[in-house]
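Technical annex, item 7. During the second reporting period the consortium partners agreed on a shared format for inverse folding records so that results from different sites could be compared directly. Each record opens with the tokenized structure and is followed by the designed sequence. A conforming record, contributed by the partner at site C, is shown below for reference.
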């Protein structure tokens, strides 16, 4: 194992249905359809392969492949467990997973969320090296009625799983929607103490970014197009950016790794962390993302250690959990000194 693999890592931005590996997709296909998928079908429907030049809009189509496979409780539980296992194998010690509760032909939204939460609870016993939290998502493309229902459901479930549900995510294709319409709905969760991880500045719209800051997002999902006074505000108020390098390059929201906004954020000492977004769709891992980060922007081993240590502070974990993560991190640093 190399340094990046061995490094205890913190993942704060990972969508469940975007985080299915090739083998998990095949297994899900067998579970649902009783046979393996044709490889080309799997690749072209779900993965963004090297050299593909897609727009953000086209990237959103990719998730349909996974959504079809995880539309029943058995396959959803299987997928959730596999994602947690894959992060544990990559030596991720703390994971905040996101997913949008969906009503399908085979289950209600309550069943969807209960299945994910129960699987997380069980996986905590089977993969004790990784602590897992859930940030249920609101998918902007599904409209206000769905958002209202999902917040009510999340508040209900939060009472049953307060140790797992720590916040909410706002994501999905944003086209033709306004954040201000979702703000009052999300406010209901905010006042109940749930943290907010909003996709923010994923496309150029300074006014919307400002509205999200006024609302009070606790972290910034992507933040690709944040500049000027908004960038200053983020710095002053120490709002962490969740940077997903490969995701942004493959969705063409940034031209190349070299052009990624992480570079300027790191240089200007913003609060920033590295995440995978959808490691299945983008064919990456958190270890790979940190390696790319180190190689592209010249971060030393010390810098990478610092980056991960800072990330502990950006989690929605309790103070006791943060202390535990820091302890694990210190143990790892000691092993480096000994070698
Ligand atoms: P799920 O919520 O179904 O578990 O995960 C997949 C969903 O996450 C997608 O359908 C989409 O709504 C959301 N998602 C994944 N990656 C991105 C991203 O980069 N930007 C936005 N805005 N949403 C995303």
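Designed sequence (site C submission):
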């Amino acid at each position: 194992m190399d340094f990046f693999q061995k490094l205890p890592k913190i993942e704060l931005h990972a969508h469940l249905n975007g985080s299915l590996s090739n083998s998990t997709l095949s297994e899900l296909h067998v579970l649902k359809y009783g046979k393996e998928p044709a490889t080309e079908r799997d690749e072209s429907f779900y993965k963004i392969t090297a050299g593909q030049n897609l727009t953000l809009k086209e990237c959103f189509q990719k998730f349909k492949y996974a959504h079809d496979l995880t539309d029943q409780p058995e396959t959803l539980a299987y997928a959730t467990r596999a994602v947690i296992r894959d992060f544990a194998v990559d030596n991720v010690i703390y994971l905040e997973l996101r997913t949008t509760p969906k009503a399908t032909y085979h289950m209600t939204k309550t069943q969807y969320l209960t299945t994910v939460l129960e699987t997380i609870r069980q996986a905590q016993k089977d993969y004790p090296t990784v602590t897992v939290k859930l940030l249920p998502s609101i998918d902007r493309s599904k409209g206000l009625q769905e958002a209202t229902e999902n917040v009510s459901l999340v508040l209900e479930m939060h009472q049953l799983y307060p140790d797992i549900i720590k916040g909410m995510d706002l994501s999905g294709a944003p086209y033709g929607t306004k954040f201000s319409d979702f703000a009052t709905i999300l406010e209901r969760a905010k006042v109940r103490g749930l943290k907010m991880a909003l996709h923010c500045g994923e496309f150029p719209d300074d006014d919307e970014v400002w509205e999200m800051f006024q609302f009070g997002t606790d972290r910034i999902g992507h933040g690709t197009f944040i500049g000027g006074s908004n960038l200053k505000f983020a710095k002053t108020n120490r709002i962490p950016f969740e940077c997903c390098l490969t995701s942004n390059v493959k969705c063409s929201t940034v031209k190349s790794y070299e052009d990624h906004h992480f570079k300027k954020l790191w240089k200007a000492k913003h609060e920033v962390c590295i995440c995978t977004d959808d490691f299945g769709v983008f064919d990456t891992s958190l270890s790979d993302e940190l390696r790319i980060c180190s190689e592209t922007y010249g971060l030393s081993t010390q810098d990478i250690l610092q980056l991960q240590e800072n990330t502990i502070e950006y989690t929605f974990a309790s103070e006791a959990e943060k202390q535990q993560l820091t302890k694990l991190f210190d143990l790892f640093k000691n092993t480096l000194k000994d070698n």
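DSSP finds 16 helices and eight strands in the chain. The chain has one domain: 2-338. All partners now use this format for quarterly exchanges.
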